[in-house]
C-alpha cells in the first residue's frame, strides 16, 4: 500500500483514523501496530515476516545490551552480533546480486543467481532499529521493556516505506503517551495534502518530462541540461513530498517527527546542501559512523578518510550499484574541496552565485545518481558538456522548453521558502482561504491520480 493511492486515501486511512480516535488511549498502540502490519502486507505479505523478525530480534537485543551494561566486553560482543545480523539481512536482500556480479566481474565469469525483490523500506527500518541499539549502548536511552511499544516504533506505517529515519530517542515519550486533537489533525492533514500535491502534481509530471528527454538517442547540450533539471526537481518533490505526508500522518496520530528537508535547493554550498537534504540520513551517518571514526578531531589524513568512508557508505546505502558509490565519493570530494580550498572564496562572493555553484554541483551529481549504467552515465555527462551532443540547442530542446516551461517555473518557485511563508501568513489572516486552497490542491491531486497511471515513490526502492 502506498500513500498516493485512491485506496489508501479513501479506504484505509479514514477507516483506520476513525477507529484510532474512537478506541481508548491504551489500545491505540495495538491498533497502530496491527494497522502497520496490514499496510505493509498489502503489497508484500511475505516480507511482513522479515519485518516482524527485525522487531523481535532488535527488541530482545536491546534488553540484552541494557542487562549487560556493567560488563563492557559482553555488551560490546552483543552489539557487534546485533550489527552483523541486521546488516546480514540488509546485504542479503539488497546487495546479494550486486556482490555476486562484482565478484564475477573480477574473476571473469558469470555467476548465475535468482533475482530477489527488495523488501520495501528495508534500509529505513534497519537503520532505525540500529540507531535504537546504538543509543542503548551509548546510554542515551533505556531499553523498551514493552514489546508492543517497541514494535510500534519499529513498524509504524507513516515512515515504514521511505523514512524519515525517526530515532527512538525522539519519540520515546510519545510512544507511551501522546495527545490527539482536532488542531494536530488539521496540521497533519494540511501537511499530507502538501506532500500529496508535491508528489502527484509536480514530481509525477516532472518524471514524464525527464523520461521523454532521456528517451532520445541523441540530445543537444541544452536538452540534456533541461532533462537533468527536470530530474533534480522531480527527486526533490518526490522525496520531500513523501516526508511531508509521513510527518503529516504522524501529526494525525499524535506524533511529532523531525523535518527531513529544509529547502536544500537554496543552499550556498555543498556542505549546507547536505545539512538540508535527507536530514535524518545525514545525521544518522554523522552520529553513528563519522563521529565514532573520530570526526574532524583527528589528523588531516584521517579526517579525509572519515569523510570519504562516510560518503562511500552513504552512496552504497542508496542502491546496489557502483554508480551510487561513485555518487557518494563525488560528494565526499566536493566536501573536502570546500573545507580545505573553496570555503574562504565562497564567503567572499555573492550568495546567489554560491547558490548557482551549489546547484550545478548538485545537478551533475544527480546524473551519477540517476544512471546505473556507466555507458549511459558517461554519454549523458558528455552531452551536457558538448561531447557527442547534436549541437548546443535544437528543435527538440525548444519543444521541451515550451511544453515544460510552466511546470519547471512552478517547481523552481515551490522549492523556495517564500510561497510557504506566504501561505502561513494567509492561514493566520484568512483561514477560510487557506482551507479552500488545500481543498483545491487535494481535488486536483485526486483527479490526476484517477486519470493517470500510478507512479511509485523514488526513494521507496532504496
In words, what does this structure look like?
- This protein is 72% helix and 0% strand.
- The protein is mainly alpha-helical.
- Helix 1 (6-22) packs antiparallel against helix 2 (28-41), helix 4 (72-107) packs antiparallel against helix 5 (122-137) and helix 9 (221-253) packs across helix 15 (374-384).
- It starts with 5 loop residues before the first helix and ends in an 11-residue tail after the last helix.
- The relative contact order is 0.10.
- The model has no long low-confidence stretch (mean pLDDT 91).
- What count of domains describes the coordinates? 2
**Taking all residues together, what is the mean pLDDT?**
91
CA radius of gyration is 23 Å
Q: What sequence of helices (H) and strands (E) makes up the elements?
A: HHHHHHHHHHHHHHHHHH
β-strand percent reads under 5%
DSSP summary, beta strand count = 0
Structural class: mainly alpha
Low-confidence spans: none
Shape: globular
GO molecular function, one term: acyltransferase activity
Pfam family, one: MBOAT
Membrane topology: Multi-pass membrane protein
Family: Belongs to the membrane-bound acyltransferase family.
Defining key terms:
EC 2.3.1.-; transferase; 462 residues; acyltransferase; cell membrane; Peptidoglycan O-acetyltransferase; mainly alpha; 2 domains; single chain
What would a concise description of this structure say?
It contains 18 helices and no strands. Helix 3 (48-67) packs across helix 6 (147-155), helix 9 (221-253) packs across helix 15 (374-384) and helix 12 packs across helix 13. With 462 residues, the protein is an all-alpha fold.
